[in-house]
Amino acid sequence: MAFRAMLCVLGLSGCQDTPLVVPVPVSISVNVEHPVLGLADTVPFAAVALDAAGRVLDTLRWPLVAQSRNPDVVELRTGSLIGRAPGSAQLVLRSGGIERTLTATVLPPRLLVFRDSLGTEVAVSANPDTLRIVVGDSISFRVRVESVPTRDLTGLFIPTWTVSDPVALRLSAAVGARISVVATDVGPVNIHLDAGIGTLRIPVRVEEAAQPP
Questions:
Q1: Which of 41, 172, 190, 205 could covalently link to 164 via disulfide, CB atoms 3.0 to 4.6 Å apart?
Q2: Rounded to whole angstroms, how far apart are CA atoms 186 and 133?
Q3: What angle do CA 183, 184, 190 make, to 5 degrees?
Q4: The whole model's pTM is what?
Q5: Are residues 123 and 44 both part of a single domain?
């Protein structure tokens, strides 16, 4: 090859039939077209520049620059994406004179609440029916925050519990994601939960205990 190049320079060989073609980027390929992450999740992310023949170009000659337009939602690090907050962020990839834009999505976490029922945890729905208890009874609840796909994020949030009528329903214990309340007077009461990523209202009706005949 070097010998032929020297002949071309000296004019001893016709070189017009084999022009030197320098490969340049014409496209950017990624390992995932539509990245979807859970909150606080880290997923692999890779991108390479390709020439017209689909060959991967040398990154030293054709460096590829990638950035997130909303790093508070999706942080872009070398080889990975990190979900920082629910929402979407554009990822911009550049190499040579070409550019490609992707959209990465961070899914919101799920807020799950469980009630202790005779020693068994029962899930509380987003629109729960009214719980009926009698004066003197106590009930306990537990919060769990999950990313999508499932991963326990409860420790990242500090739940806040309040009751609309602290006379009828008294907070007896609140430790981390768990709470216990004691019914002290009759009446309708709402238990409010604010977990930082969502709220839930649990309606309760406190009734008089049945009197023995």
A1: 190
A2: 9
A3: 50
A4: 0.72
A5: no
Q: How many CB atoms lie within 10 A of CB 72?
A: 10
**Distance (Å, rounded) from C-alpha 108 to C-alpha 171?**
29
- Six-digit token string for 194: 């604010």
In contact, 68 and 51? CB cutoff 8 Å: no
Tens of pLDDT, residues 79-100:
999 999 999 999 999 999 999 9
pLDDT at 18: 60
Strand-strand pairing, 98-107 and 36-38: parallel
Residue 96 near residue 105, CB atoms below 8 Å: no
Please check whether residues 90 and 146 belong to one and the same domain.
no
Q: Are 57 and 49 in contact (CB under 8 A)?
A: yes
List the CATH number of the domain containing 58. 2.60.40.1080
